[in-house]
Amino acid sequence: MARPPHAREKVLLAYAQLLVEGERAATMDAVATRAGVSKGGVLYHFPSKDALAEALLGRFAEVSAADVKAMQDDPDGPVRNFIRTSWETDADLDPVYRAVMRLAHAGHEGALGMLESLHDDWLRELETETGDAALAKTVMLLGDGLYHQASMPGRWSQQQFSDLDELLAQVDRLLGR
Q: Which residue intervals define the domain HTH tetR-type in the entry (predicted)?
């Protein structure tokens, strides 16, 4: 009897969550427990940790492509989209991004390559809009700082940086708008 399709997704989500908590914590037994399935259920979908990592990278490719497409399609432009979404830590990209970052920190070459590719894609979109490589890098660093602050525990960041309109107005001034 085939397992319900959602079991695979639960296992993949559990793996990503455990990676964020620490790469060594993401054992097959821990993934099974977190997903609420048997270890056999995990192995049915992912016969090894390498298979789990590859599936996570596949998911990362999907959400990354959607993120870049959203930048391209945003009527306010890639720069404003990037700044606005850098503050979001509950978007589809975030948990997968953090999990892939953990894999990269652990030395997974595929994860590192995919992160670098996404960063290149973001920078290319920012540079296309700004027409200036240094300005595009500045915007990217602003977004990275926002993401870092949004990821911090506590309320300080939310209190200090809750008004994105003010920040976007500063970015518009940087862009000469």
A: 5-64
